Structure formats: C-alpha cells, structure tokens
Amino acid sequence: MPVTVSGSGLSIHDVEAVARNRDSVGVSDDAWNRINVCRSMIQQKIDDHEIMYGVTTGIGEFSEVVLDPKQVENFQRFLIYSHAAGIGDPMSEEVVRGAMLGRMNVHCHGNSGGRPEITEQLRDMLNSSITPVAAAKGSVGACGDLSPMSQIAMAMMGEGDVFYRGNRMLASDALKDAGLDPLVLHARDGLAIINGSNMLTAMAALSLCDVERWMKYQDIATAMTLEALNANMTPYDSKLHELRGFSGSQVVASNLRRLTENSKMLESAGKKVQDAYSLRSTPQVIGALRDAFNYAREQVEIELNGVGDNPVFIPDEERVITGANFQGTPIALPMEMIGTGMSMAAVLSERRMNRLTNPALSAGLPPFLTEMPGMHSGLMVAQYTACALVAETRILSHPAANQSIPAAADQEDFVSMGMTTTQKTQQIIKNCYGVLAIEMIAAAQAIDIRGGIPGDGVSAAHNVIRKYISHLDEDRALFPDNDKMVEILSSGELLEAVESAIGCLD
C-alpha cells in the first residue's frame, strides 16, 4: 500500500512498510506547496546576500566564514564530499531506505529550504529501489547523521555506490537504468539532505517494530513454560494487576490468561503455593518493558514527524532560526531504555528455560529434557547458548548516550552518540530473539514429555514449532533447530497461528 508523506502522521509501521516491504512513496499536494513557498523565501534571501548559516556561510567551526555568490553554489557539493567520511561495512538497505523516507517527511513541513528537486529525487530513488551504500560507522548523532546521510546525497548526485536489483553498482549506472538524472545541488540543498538524525531514527523505528513483535512472542513463550511447569496461575489474576495500576503488567497478565485458556495441563495437582520470581513476576517485569516501549515509540514518532534540521526557515515570518534540532538525544535516551529493558527480559527468558532443564526445579521433568539422561545430554548445551547471548546483551546495555566526545574543534562539544545506541540496541534485540527461540524449543519439548492438552494459544504455538522442529528423542546437533526457530519467529507464522486461534494479542 502506498505511503504518502505530508510532514505528519508517519508511524514506525509506515517506515517498516517502505523500508522493508518496499511500498511506494508519494508526497501530499499541501507538502509540495509548503516546500515551494519555503524555497522561494530562501532564494530571495540568497539573492539579497543575507548571511545564513550553512547557506551563505561555512558550517561548524567555519560558521563565521561568509561565502561569496560563486562559493555558495559550489559549497554544497564540497560539503557533501567532506562529510562522507564514514568507515566499515554498509548500513543495511532497510535502514538507509527508512532514513530517506524520514528525510522526505522533514522536507514536507516546508521549513528546510531545499529545492523540491531533492525531495523528488529521494522519492524516485525509493520507488525505484535504488538504495545508497552508506558506511555503518561514522555518525555521532549530531549534527544529525552527517556521514551516512552524505553518502545518500552523493548517490542522489550520481556518485558513489548503490544497491540496485540485487547488485552493488555505481550510482550513476543505477540512476541511468531507472531513468533518473543525477541531482545538481544548489544553495542549501546539501545541508537540507544531511542535517538530521534520520538514519538513527529509522533504525530505532525498525527496531521498535521488532520489539513490538518480540513482546508478543515473549508472552507466548512464557505461557508455554507455565504449562510445562504446571504453574500456579494465581499471580496472573486481573485484580492483582489492576490494584497496582501499571498498564503493561495488566496487558501481559491478560495475554497469559488468554494463551492458557482451556488448558487441561494446568488442572494438574501438585502446584506450589508460590512459583519462582522468573515465573510469577513476568507480568511486572515484561510489563515495565511494554510501558517503556510505549514511551519510546511516542518519542520516535515525534521525531519522524518533526522538523529535525538546522537552520530552520519560517516562511510566514521570513525568519531563519539556527539551533540544534538535529540532536539525536531525544531518540538515543529512550532507545537506551529499550536496550536495557530487552536485556532484562532476556535474563528472565533464560531463567525460565533453566527451570525447564534443571531437574531440581522442573516439577518432575527429566534432566535437560532428555528421556535417556547420561546417554543423551538433551538441551543442556542449548542453555549455554542462551547464557552467551544474555551475557552479550548485558555488555551492550552499557549506555552510549552519555559517551559524548567533542567534535569540530569543540564547536560541537556535546553529541548524542545516538547511532551507537541504536546499533547496539539492534544487536540486543537480535540476541533476545535467539534467547526466546531457545526457551520455546525447550518448552515445546517439556510439553511433549509432560503430556496433556495445553491452552488454545499454547497449542497453536506448539503445532507450528512441531511443523518444523521435531521432538528431541535422541541427541542431534541443535544449532539448526535454534536457527530455524528464530526464522519461524521472524516469519510471523507462529504469531499468526496463535492469533488465529485466540484473537489478536494486546
């Protein structure tokens, strides 16, 4: 479905639709009008030789250098060259595409001052699936993601490399094949492309889409483990969570009740009066992550729909305001919280998995979920893998947002390190999918061994797992199972099956 940008209403799911699913992009008529009005104002100021940061002056430490008319035209091209200073492997195509979409939406406010041609080029490259190659390392999240955004600008100019039709090639060749002309930058155009935290915001938006799905999978995995361990379901009573008042814990408890509804396994005798914290406090812990997610999503969507630029032009007042609306901290800080919360949740998942495999804690299940202990080791070493992933998430949870290193001769003496934050959070999320996959494999094995009929939602999840991963009768290499389980989660098939059985999870 096409996504039309207008400067407002852009969601994280819209970013995913364009970035991952390659939905087409359009621009609203009102937005084009605002872009044209703003450009007319700035062009008049250029013609009148007014001093404007980054237009008729240099940038950063060179902001006091006033450019002559000839320099004004050439400056934008040299600006892009000098700022394309990253290093390392390319950023993923989906993140670059998301950044291009976000930058278009900034332009739609009519406060950036670039010519409409630059917004058109971004649109046309997205719709032609031409994705600039942009180095993954080099942004400090202020003045925006200058280095990788500059490689986007270069590709728009027909320079550098792009990914196109499954190949890496020269941008000039891809533009020609798609019937597009290289962009010639005029005054302000270059800075209007690069001067925002669009790359890290796109990565944050896509990461939050992954977290949103992971939280549902987390509830499914928990419900499976509760069934396998014959848990006492009293801690998931709605009244308990209503009394405390946190919305996140109420949602998790509700999902767990729905997933285990009609369970015969949970009717078994021999329940403990109180289960371990890793079971009965799951709604409170994961609920806190859900509440943090809601805040992070709100912040990211504010940024997606805000004017992240410098300077900012106000056509109806004929004013130019220089400031710091490129700063990545409003995204970096909530994404630090997401990374820490996901790391915390991974610990909880691994601890539940441990209770499934530890015969002292598993309510009668065989050691490491093998029915021939000694001859076979079962899922013993699968827990090692979960531990390794959890350890890495803990290390990656060390904050980057407070790690500023001054730049540009101390003119830019506080930077957000927002790209570092979002990159490490992205890896945390990937690890968390792995930990949860291992818990689900263990829970499915335990349900087989325990016997009985689990709840409707758990049954649906179990059936999908067994469609691809067979019961562990005797030892086999487990890494294909682990990878396959992550693939199942990524495909969405398991979630679709569960929600078909019990309705959409909250």
Please name the defining characteristics of this protein.
Fumarase C, Chain A, domain 2, 19 helices, 9 strands, 506 residues, single chain, 2 domains, Fumarase C, Chain B, domain 1, two-stranded parallel sheet, mainly alpha
Terminal CA distance reads 24 Å
What ranges have pLDDT less than 50 throughout 5 or more consecutive residues?
Answer: none
Instruction: Specify the helix fraction band.
Output: 55-70%
Strand order of the largest sheet: 4-6-7
Secondary-structure element pattern, one letter each: EHEHHEHHEEHEEHHHHHHHEEHHHHHH
Oligomeric form: single chain
CATH topology of the largest domain: Fumarase C, Chain A, domain 2
Describe the structure in your own words.
Helix 4 packs across helix 9 (198-228) and helix 14 runs antiparallel to helix 15 (380-396). The model has no long low-confidence stretch (mean pLDDT 94). The protein contains 19 helices and 9 strands. It folds into 2 domains: 3-196, Fumarase C, Chain B, domain 1 (Orthogonal Bundle), CATH 1.10.275.10; 203-305 and 345-502, Fumarase C, Chain A, domain 2 (Up-down Bundle), CATH 1.20.200.10. It is elongated, with a radius of gyration of 26 Å. It has helices at 12-19, 29-47, 69-83, 93-107, 116-127, 146-156, 171-177, 189-194, 198-228, 238-244, 247-259, 277-280, 282-304, 329-357, 380-396, 418-450, 456-468, 479-491, 493-502, and strands at residues 3-5, 25-27, 87-90, 131-132, 135-137, 161-164, 167-170, 312-314, 319-321. A 3-stranded antiparallel β-sheet has the order 4-6-7. The protein has 506 residues and is mainly α.
